[in-house]
Amino acid sequence: MKKIDRSKAGTPFKAYFNLDKPDHFVWVRVYKNRKSMCAAVSRTMGSTYGSGYAGLCMAYRLFKFPKGSKRALASKELGTIFLNYDEARAAVVTHECLHAVAAYAKLKRLNLCRTGVKAGLMSPKCDQERLCYALGDLVYQIGQKVWD
Q1: C-alpha pair distances (Å), 41 with each of 12, 83, 103
Q2: CB 93: neighbour CB atoms within 10 A?
Q3: Is the pLDDT higher at 115 or at 16?
Q4: Which of 13, 27, 92, 108 could form a disulfide with 80 if both were Cys (CB 3.0 to 4.6 A apart)?
């Protein structure tokens, strides 16, 4: 996976929740520092969010009405993660990715309780495992582009 050119900070890339079956995704934007990231968040949100955060996940779902149709179609886009190079350590990236994965879990109606787990082993198809794999896939994709 190609690393981000730091001179083009803020250029978005897609990170998918399931690398084996890419469908739903979040946009990831990585800025040079906290100040530029917070300015971008304020521009995006149309208001000032302050500067007391190292990263931010805005989870959302877009719906589009095709021309002449009365039925809305849902996009595969589930949000945007804002990060900055100065503070893009594992804890921050994982924290923001978990917010995105929570939105994905809600969309997929994942049952995160451990009922039905026998002898402490979970099937890879267990909903809790699906959540963990989605988190791992997002962190992996961001790490490949951001970390040296």
Answers
A1: 13, 10, 19
A2: 23
A3: 16
A4: 27
Closest by CA position to 10, among listed 42, 46, 34, 40: 40
Q: How many CA atoms lie within 13 A of 40 on its CB side?
A: 25
Q: Which of 38-42, 51-55, 86-90 has the lowest mean pLDDT?
A: 51-55
In order of 24, 25, 27, 79, 90, the CA distances from 21 in angstroms are 9, 11, 17, 18, 25
Amino acid at 115: T
122-125 long-range Cβ contacts below 8 angstroms, 24+ apart: none
CA 63, CA 120: separation in Å to the nearest integer? 40
Please check the confidence at residue 129 and state whether its pLDDT lies above 90.
no
Say if residues 135 and 94 touch (Cβ distance below 8 Å): yes
